[in-house]
């Protein structure tokens, strides 16, 4: 019997670590929005504290079935009022730490779902 690894036809995250993620062989070291259908664009906040309501208006403009947000090193939640643009389009937002968001994104993308992940990628702490 021949065994072959599963192949994901969607854009996937191939690795991650403190202060970076990889998409294929490209290392990304700043906050980014990725979509299973090829979307890749910079995202403004460099930390959770820099988030504003405008960031969620930006996310609501994207065509997504499922929306994930990686908040950095730990799961945090934004003010519910900031999510109004997403709720108006009947898009829920699942928040989690950025590494969990990467794993969840890959699973959903591998299932063929139209998933978008917004990742806060903060610089790693200084030694």
Q: What does this protein look like?
A:
It comes from Simplicispira suum. InterPro entries: MTH938-like_sf, NDUFAF3/AAMDC. This is Xcc1710-like domain-containing protein. This protein is of the alpha/beta class. It has one domain: MTH938-like (Hypothetical Protein Mth938, Chain: A). It is about 20% helix and about 25% strand. The protein is built from 3 helices and 8 strands. It has helices at about 55-60, 85-90, 100-110; strands at about 15, 20-25, 25-30, 30-35, 40, 65-70, 95, 115-120. The protein has a 5-stranded mixed sheet, with helices on one face. Strands 1-2-3 form a 3-stranded antiparallel sheet, with no helix packed on it. Strand 2 and strand 3 form a beta hairpin. The radius of gyration is 15 Å and the shape is globular. The termini are far apart. Mean pLDDT is about 90; it is low at about 1-5.
Overall mean pLDDT stands at 91
Give the domain tally: 1
Runs with pLDDT <50, length 5+?
1-5
Which strands sit side by side, in order, in the main sheet?
5-4-8-6-7
CATH architect. name: 3-Layer(aba) Sandwich
CATH class: Alpha Beta
> Major sheet, described briefly?
5 strands, mixed
The string of secondary-structure elements, in order, is EEEEEHEHEHE
DSSP summary: helix tally: 3
Class inferred from helices and paired strands: alpha/beta
Q: How many individual β-strands?
A: 8
**N-C termini distance:** 49 Å
CATH fold title: Hypothetical Protein Mth938, Chain: A
- Under CATH, the homologous superfamily reads MTH938-like
> How big a fraction of the residues is strand?
15-25%
Radius of gyration: 15 Å
What is the helical fraction, as a range of percent?
10-25%
